[in-house]
């Protein structure tokens, strides 16, 4: 794991993305940079609407048409996804990286059977002369892998006939079946019941282990991240504020936002209800200048408003984008 | 199985609707000021004949009794005698309905494919010139009533550049085509008269185009907007992120969900074609049921009007049923057994 | 390091007025996102102006009624008569503008009766979903929807004396079921919403539930449909008038002007072409405006 160059599967460099919403520009992502090594599990944490899903969609270059790439690049195995030709991009999506969506009820096409959708996805991920029979068996095998009872019946079902948990299993099977190397999991349990959520997380955990996959796990649940990832990036309003080994960040959070986020977790020890963070995620059409967190930050200073803080490494592998990185704790 | 259940359920509801409709239109036609027997026979008829007629038609009985006699006749296929043609309305239908069906089929079915094509093109070239062209023309076309198109076509293609027959009718006098199906173009082909078929087709062109334009562009607009709306859905992003080629996604995974809402409103479009046929048939001298109905309405021909309204009700319900069946076939969600 | 709060002036404080201004600006942006909505607004404004003040703006106001000038009959368009003259020698342009008031009245009267009536029927049925009232009301609605609208309107108009008022009545009679359907759909989906159930639980009166809880939820759908329907009502009205069942001569109506012009095609083409184009422009204006309003209110395209 020392040779970062050969072991990096994904590298995001200074990614800035805006959206054109009825003529006004929302500046969502601002200078997001991080890296995923082969076999590594990276967490991406933040409140709803802070740009986590946008980051994942950017990796697969499936941003909606009103998205504008201002600057930055995303290197998947050394190739920039924004400059790939169609064939390379398709190749990357088929066998490189795949995404598990937050809401499985909208991620499957309502008017096609699971079989039709699964087979279409597999058809292009395998060599063109692969017989359909073989593809069908791969799909059934993948459904068995995600602990689906009676995969043959599932294949002939339509999404509306399946429960939320089953739909999510189908999506996971579709993402894993073709042998992708990097899985982008966008809050895969959030829209499901707590018990189902737990099953889905265990399932992903097992599949990642068995197939030696790299993962970016997006969540706003810190418990999931703590248990599941080895490295974590904390995102606030389209910017990364802190990153490091999961244990370091959880044990020694240094950014005021990370600290506040940790304080929000309800404690089972009975210390009362969590505080919450006053204020809300800023309006992206006119984001705060400088550090995007300063309007909510109890420690804000003049410089925080004037200039965006650069990441500072405070411990080996643990960095913070805050002027007070060495003072707050 | 579910399709059959749906059909049975709908037909059950349809009978109630048709009975109600027959009552509405029957009472409506009886509140016409004046004596219906006198209206039917004209002012010169001697009083005793009018009295006889009144007796025979039960006009001297209370309204529910009159309705009872009328509706039992209708159920036996006897719609009563038209005061204009002096024949049984059922016979008039047999004569005039095929012409209208031919017109409505031409105006209703082939344009659907153009509508879908234009809708898909508009969505694929969103905010580029083909899209602007389609949208611009659809706004103009939808805003123009069918009878205005009929009049303008007549002026332009019938008189100014006389490339299409301006007299109207279904076919030129010089041809004589034996009726088999009642559809003139088809009958001419069956009778091996290609020249007559071509002539009949030319006669069809203007009226069917006048009837087709509005709903075609409306459907094209609807298809386009659903394509664009669905293009942003998660399931399209999902299948794109799986590496399925763009053209396959557009042609299959985006087209089908986007077409279903368009198909489901086509029953209403058929109704508007029938409605608009009233004036278009009159303008083009098309010997169809709508022109017949228009004359019946203007001359207050009670039995004919009641019969036509019921006939339109039946046609409308049947086409809607057909549309529902197509939607059930296309959209698996519709097969869901509904919990009441 | 001591915690320090930021000066209040650095964080933008949202007042109600700036919020409303922002909302208004956002609405306008949504409305004008498609430039054609503005064209629609312009056309409709001109139409309204001419409909209300047409009598004082046209070159020959006396031509709007019965007026005969055979010396100037059947003249083609010229600088004196923009759209030519008809066979009575009346200025076609003045007559077209003169018909706008009735066209506007038709749309306004029909919709302002049909929408509330349909709304009440739909809400009553939807609120009593599953009961006899629901079945009865919606079956009657279906009966009206089971015939092509124009057929029913023509049948009704023919029974009554042919004039403007009765043609309005006929169109209204066929229009309310659409609003019944629309508000029925919204109401029956709202029926199981918690805030409606809550309102019932705390003992809110029925009028309160209908007008304070359900109406606001139907409003955007109904308003959108009303603006889009304006064009359709004008089309249907013109069609009825073309059939001779609307406003009677000598008063002008777009449909009847075309109907009488058809007899003189192709020689006096201007008698048909200009009223035709006028209908198209008016309906176009209302449709474009309706689309703009519907995208502003965020309702689905109907």
Would you mind describing this structure in some detail?
The complex is a heterotrimer of chains A (329), B (340) and C (302). By secondary structure, chain A is α/β, with parallel strands linked by helices. Chain A has helices at residues 4-7, 52-59, 86-96, 104-107, 114-125, 132-145, 151-155, 164-177, 194-211, 222-228, 246-251, 256-264, 302-306, and strands at 8-21, 24-37, 41-45, 67-76, 79-80, 97-100, 182-186, 214-219, 231-236, 239-245, 312-315, 318-320. The mean pLDDT of chain B is 87. The relative contact order of chain B is 0.14. Chain B has a domain at 95-288: MetI-like fold, CATH 1.10.3720. Chain C has 302 residues and is mainly alpha-helical. Chain C contains eleven helices and no strands. In chain C, helix 9 packs antiparallel against helix 11. Mean pLDDT of chain C is 83; it is low at 1-14. The chains are: A alpha/beta (329), B mainly alpha (340), C mainly alpha (302). Chains B and C meet through helix 1, helix 7, helix 8, helix 10 and helix 13 of B and helix 5, helix 6, helix 9, helix 10 and helix 11 of C.
What are the segments of chain C in which pLDDT stays under 50 over at least 5 consecutive residues? Answer: 1-14
Fraction in helix of chain C: 55-70%
Rounded average pLDDT of chain C = 83
Query: Could you state the CATH homologous superfamily of chain C?
Result: MetI-like
Structural class call of chain B reads mainly alpha
CATH topology of the domain at 95-288 in chain B: the name is MetI-like fold
From the alpha carbons, calculate the radius of gyration of chain B and give it in angstroms.
24 Å
Beta-strand residue fraction of chain C = under 5%
Strand pairing plus helix content of chain C: what structural class? mainly alpha
Number of domains of chain C: 1
The low-confidence parts of chain B are: none
User: Can you write the helix and strand succession of chain C as a string?
Assistant: HHHHHHHHHHH
Assigned CATH architecture of the domain at 95-288 in chain B: Orthogonal Bundle
Characterize the main sheet of chain C: none
Shape of chain B: globular
Output the number of helix runs of chain B.
15
Shape of chain C: globular
Largest interface: B-C, 50 and 44 residues
Oligomer: heterotrimer
